[in-house]
Amino acid sequence: DEILSALPDGVALVQADRRIRRANPALLRLAARSREQLEGLDLEALFETPAPVLGTRREVSARLLRPSAASIPVGVGASQLRDRRGNELGLVVVLRDLREVDALRERAITAARMAAVGELAAGIAHEINNPIAFVRSNLSQLRGHWKTLRSELEAADEMPALRDLVMDGDALIEESLEGVDRAAEIVRGVRGFSHVGSGERVPTDLNRLLDEVLRMLSSRLRGRVTLECSYVDLPPLRCSPQELKQVFLNLLVNAEQAVSDGGRIRIATSKGRDFVGVLVEDDGCGIAAELLERVFDPFFTTKPIGVGTGLGLGIAYQIVKSHAGEIRLESQPGAGTRVRVRLPVERG
Questions:
Q1: Which CATH architecture group holds 202-344?
Q2: Taking Cα atoms as reference points, which of 265, 207, 269, 266 lies closest to residue 241?
Q3: Which CATH entry fits the domain spanning 2-97: 3.30.450.20, 3.40.50.300, 3.40.109.40, 3.90.226.10?
Q4: Over the stretch 301-330, which tens digit does the pLDDT of each residue have?
Q5: Are 319 and 313 in contact (CB under 8 A)?
Q6: Beta carbons of 31 and 50 less than 8 angstroms apart
Q7: Cis peptide before 50 (omega within 30 of 0)
Q8: Which terminal residue of the chain, N or C, has fewer Cβ atoms less than 10 Å from its own Cβ?
Q9: What is the pTM (predicted TM-score) of this model?
Q10: pLDDT tens digit string along 275-297?
């Protein structure tokens, strides 16, 4: 009993009829059940279907059901339990919590994907930026020529006959310039995405930095949303202030765009022994569960076409990672979104 109680992994002694005879404290915690609920239960009732096939020494993956919470990933291994004559008595089943392993795997996949995009981004931005600059310059020159032509037509009293054509020309040139500027904005975002982490690191008051970002957004937030700020005293954070401003600007703009008029945005700071944290929370429309794993992907967006570039969260992810920090996003449709940023602090 003492040995089973000391083990960090969940262990179950299972009878030949596949009912659980004994369970150690780690398994009770992992399954979120009492001893009375667990002992006597059919082993397969612990797992989502299809239940893992046991009987070999090889560990298999499964989802462990929990009565009052979501299922969790576990690794399941089993060994035959026999008496001295070799008769089968049942199984010793070991369940290993894989939540941290899965989270690390997901972060590694995301980091690898972001690194690959970062390598391509600089070259793509350069190749696109030059022709965009030519088109922008030519359109600006064309606009000047068009204004001159319109003045000449007005002076010659030719405008009444050509008014619709001239007005169409004005609209086409302005729409073209707007489209080119939009493309240039995307290129700037891609270039910023590929160059994060290069800013100078200086000791920074994170609370003051957040106030500066909020002042930048005051015209967008004032009168439309309720803003709640909750700060604690923080130690100086060695960081690139401009890059972190971009992170929190992106997060707050996303929150502002997600909430309806009269909605709520909350920003709070916290600290631990070796880190500082920032929470940005809104009560907006939320994000569907199947989209959450893609929110940090470059160019992925849940916004309507033409609203946002899909680079904001990708750039925020890269900047936070370049500061050896973590950024996590939780969301539910109709219940809002919560983003947590955690950054390490240096102790003197």
A1: 2-Layer Sandwich (3.30)
A2: 207
A3: 3.30.450.20
A4: 665 544 555 567 888 888 898 898 999 999
A5: no
A6: no
A7: yes
A8: C
A9: 0.49
A10: 999 999 999 888 888 787 777 77
